[in-house]
Structure to design on (441 residues):
């Protein structure tokens, strides 16, 4: 509890609220377009990465992604995804956190964000396989599905890192994020 | 808040959130038509009987799922690999494209699956308000109240965001930041709102946390609530019903 200061919690609430607002239309759109074009679903799957990437990159503290996505999930209850929104969000947040947990929260370099994101997409692709009957699609559609999935993950991770860099430059996380270690930069 | 036993609003929010999850997993992994169709229909009936839906929401809940199923049936009819279904009946041939009945079957199953998961999610989505869910999480799921209160704060941040966004938009416009029309420019313009919006929100969060701590928030291990969200025997009944939906795939076998 000592590391869970009120200020840190409120910072997560701020990023979480923004993520939640962003994800409500994303859940609506994903239900609508997954109906018409399953490939477009893969293209927007990366939107879910934006919140946790920003939270982790700005706050650089254990639990930032999980907390942020949990709070975003509470806001997403109003979307058609309902309770699965909290679970989806926690899954994404937890997965992005894993890479940093394994490295004991010592590495905050961009490659770890991309690597963790890509690994999660592998897992996600497997679960989407059953849900969307992807193995029944034509080979071209299957290839396109995976290319779009990984491309959208990479693009939104990059976008999140850019936003995080600018937020850090604005100085909002001063006192929350640990001071950067000179040797690691 | 209606307290009638027939109203889904009177049930515990955490129960409504967690109890449909096993059925959702069963539906998501199913491949037949029977499972999602039955579970989806039961969820729809629950919503219609207990949801107290009105107006546009009611219209969407009734008309949305069939539309979704129809859309997915047709679109998957196009996306499905013809090699897998070419022993089934060909329904329609347009140039090089043939619509196979097997492809439509796959599409129908997928559509029913998506619609059933959606309807199960709407049970909580349409009948719960956020603060009650958080209160119930603190009381019944033992979520630390500090994290729960961060949830309250996040909900309160949302209307503030909308106001902030309007101010930032006006400020950008006054300085002539908007660079023309078109989807790409619009997207770039919204990207420009993201950083000031988030920075403002985090600074607001700092001030809120100071105000909360100044009032002694987090000083004690527990915190009492003015409003209690009940957990009653009716919630156990609802949970049992929703979890029992997992056995729907075995029903045709049991019935012979």
């Amino acid at each position: 509890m000592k590391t869970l200061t009120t200020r840190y919690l409120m910072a997560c609430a701020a990023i979480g609220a923004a993520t939640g607002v962003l994800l409500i239309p994303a859940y609506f759109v994903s239900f609508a377009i997954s109906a018409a074009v399953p490939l477009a679903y893969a293209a927007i799957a990366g939107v879910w990465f934006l919140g946790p990437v920003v939270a982790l990159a700005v706050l650089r503290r254990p639990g930032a992604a999980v907390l942020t996505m949990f709070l975003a999930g509470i806001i997403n209850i109003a979307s058609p995804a309902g309770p699965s929104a909290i679970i989806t969000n926690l899954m994404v947040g937890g997965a992005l956190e894993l890479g940093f947990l394994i490295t004991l929260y010592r590495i905050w370099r961009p490659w770890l964000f991309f690597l963790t994101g890509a690994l999660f997409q592998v897992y996600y692709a497997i679960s989407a396989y059953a849900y969307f009957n992807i193995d029944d699609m034509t080979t071209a559609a299957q290839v396109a599905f995976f290319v779009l999935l990984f491309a959208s993950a990479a693009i939104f991770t990059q976008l999140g890192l850019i936003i995080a860099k600018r937020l850090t430059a604005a100085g909002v996380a001063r006192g929350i994020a640990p001071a950067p270690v000179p040797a690691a930069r | 808040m209606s307290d009638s036993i027939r109203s889904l609003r009177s049930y515990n929010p955490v129960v409504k959130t967690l109890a449909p999850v096993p059925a959702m997993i069963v539906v998501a992994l199913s491949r037949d038509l029977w499972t999602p169709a039955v579970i989806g229909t039961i969820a729809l009936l629950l919503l219609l009987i207990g949801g107290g839906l009105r107006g546009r929401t009611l219209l969407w809940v009734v008309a949305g799922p069939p539309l979704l199923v129809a859309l997915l049936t047709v679109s998957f009819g196009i996306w499905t690999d013809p090699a897998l279904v070419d022993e089934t009946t060909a329904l329609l041939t347009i140039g090089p494209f043939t619509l196979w009945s097997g492809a439509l079957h796959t599409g129908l199953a997928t559509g029913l699956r998506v619609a059933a998961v959606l309807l199960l999610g709407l049970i909580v989505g349409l009948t719960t308000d956020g603060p009650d869910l958080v209160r119930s999480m603190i009381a019944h799921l033992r979520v630390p109240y500090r994290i729960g209160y961060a949830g309250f704060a996040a909900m309160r941040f949302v209307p503030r965001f909308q106001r902030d966004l309007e101010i930032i938009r006006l400020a950008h416009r006054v300085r002539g930041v908007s660079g023309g029309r078109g989807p790409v420019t619009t997207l770039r313009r919204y990207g420009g709102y993201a950083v000031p919006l988030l920075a403002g929100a985090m600074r607001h969060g700092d001030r809120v946390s100071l105000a909360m701590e100044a009032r002694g928030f987090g000083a004690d291990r527990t915190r009492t609530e003015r409003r209690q969200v009940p957990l009653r025997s009716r919630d156990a009944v609802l949970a049992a019903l929703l979890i029992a939906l997992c056995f729907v795939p075995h029903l045709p076998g049991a019935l012979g």
